[in-house]
Amino acid sequence: MKYMSYGVVLLALMSGVANTQAATPLTGSLKKIKENNVIVLGNRESSVPYSYYDNGQNVIGYSQEIALQIVEAIKKEIDAPGLQVRMMPITAQNRIPLVQSGTINLECGGTTNNAERRKQVEFSNTISITETRLLTKRTSGIRSFNDIEGKTVAVTAGTTSERYLRKKIAEAKLNVMIVAATDHAQGFMMVQQGRAAAFFMDSDVLSAEKAKASKSDDYIITGEPQTFEAIACMLPKNDPALKAIVDKTIARIQTSGEAYKLYQKWFMSPIPPQNINLNLPLSQKLKSVFETPNDVSLDD
C-alpha cells in the first residue's frame, strides 16, 4: 500500500521512543567500564575471611563472592558479556585514594562504612557487621580494655580501629604504647613474638588470625566490644548508577536467603587454604540487615 495506516505509524513511533529510552547513555564508572571493557576490583591480600589469597594467589572470600555477583549484574546492565575483571591488591592505607582517583572501580573487602569516610567515597548496603576487641596470649592477664595500661598494643594502620584506639587512649589518659602494623598478619605476629601484649582489631579479623596459629589455644579474644562497625563495599562518590546496581545485587543476595549460606560458608565452616574455622555465629544485628538491606553506618 502507498500509505501506512495510522496504527502502524503509531506503533513505529512508540518503538522508536522505547529504543531511545533503552539506549540511555552510560555515565560515570559504568561508562568507563564499558569503554575499557574492564572492571577493576580492589582486593585485600590477607583480610580473612573477606578478601584474601589462596595458595594459588587467587582472590577468595566472603566479600569477593559478593563482588563477583556485582560484576555479573554490571555485565548485564551495560551489555558487556565479555567484560574483563582485573584484580588490584590494596592496603588499608591506600584503598580510599585508589577509589577516589578511579584507579579501582569497586572495593569489597572488610572496609568500615562511617561518616568520616563518606566525605571521600560512597558505600554500598552493609554486607557484614563486626565489633572491635583484643587478641592476646592466654597468659597475658589481659581480660578487659583497662588491662592494657602500661602495655604495648598493636593495631592495623589506616583502619578505623587505629583511629578509635588512639583517640580512646588519649581521652582516657592511659599509659599505652600503640604500634601500627602494616597488615593484620603482622599485627598478630607482634603478639606472637612478644613485641605487643595485645592486638586490637575487628573480632572477625582476630578470629581468623587466632585460627591460623599453630597453637591457637594459647591465645584468646577478650575484652568488652569497643565499637560496632558496618562493613560495606566502597565505590566512588556521586555515582548513583553504579551504587544502584551494587545495592540491588546485595539486597537480592540478602533477601533471597543466599547471604545466610555465604555467611555459613565463610564464618562457620572450614575455609581454604588452611581449613580454619572462625566459628563466629551470625549476630542479630547482621540478621536484621539481611532481612532489611540498608546502607546505614553504625556511627549514624
- The helix-strand sequence is HHEEEEHEHEEEEHEHEHEEHHH
> Radius of gyration in whole Å, from Cα?
23 Å
Q: Give the quaternary arrangement of the chains.
A: single chain
Proper CATH architecture of the largest domain: 3-Layer(aba) Sandwich
The count of strands amounts to 13
Report the top-level CATH class of the largest domain. Answer: Alpha Beta
CATH topology of the largest domain: D-Maltodextrin-Binding Protein, domain 2
Terminal Cα span: 68 Å
Number of helices: 10
Beta content comes to 15-25%
Percent of residues in helices comes to 25-40%
The averaged pLDDT comes out at 93
Largest sheet: 7 strands, mixed
How many domains would you count in the coordinates?
A: 2
- Characterize the overall form: globular
- Superfamily (CATH H level) name of the largest domain: Periplasmic binding protein-like II
Structural class: alpha/beta
Low-confidence stretches: 1-13, 17-22
InterPro entries: Bact_solute-bind_prot3, Solute-binding_3/MltF_N
Keywords: Signal, Transport
Protein name: Glutamate/aspartate import solute-binding protein
Family: Belongs to the bacterial solute-binding protein 3 family.
